[in-house]
Amino acid sequence: MQQAFYRETAKPFREGTYSITPRIQQNGTEVYWRIRAMSQLEHKEIWRRSQEQPKRYETMVLAASVCFPDLKQADLQDHYGAIGAEQLLEKMLTAGEFAALREAVEDINQ
Fold first, then answer.
1. For every one of its 110 residues, what pLDDT tens digit does the chain have, with 9 covering 90 and above?
2. Which pTM does this prediction carry?
3. How far apart are CA 8 and CA 21, in angstroms?
4. Is residue 6 part of a domain?
């Protein structure tokens, strides 16, 4: 029974597809975001890097959870005049879309 908890036998952390920005479309179809779950250790490391600032921590967690679009891609950052994935999210998303991303990240980590 104990072996069920071994890393090799546990299922990997989940990834999911979410509607975050219905206004962003390709060929008339919404482009969905791919979000991944994160380990508690990853959260802890982000908290440390955020210098324990709650708002910065939140944005860093959201950025680290996004698999697609690739927020680290220089072309995308350049297009929005952003430096880094966190700033890109803040420039790219409306307040409602940012809230939708927060909800998606909370959902995938349940």
1. 788 788 787 778 899 999 999 999 999 999 999 999 999 999 999 999 999 999 999 999 999 999 999 999 999 999 999 999 999 999 999 999 999 999 999 999 99
2. 0.90
3. 36
4. no
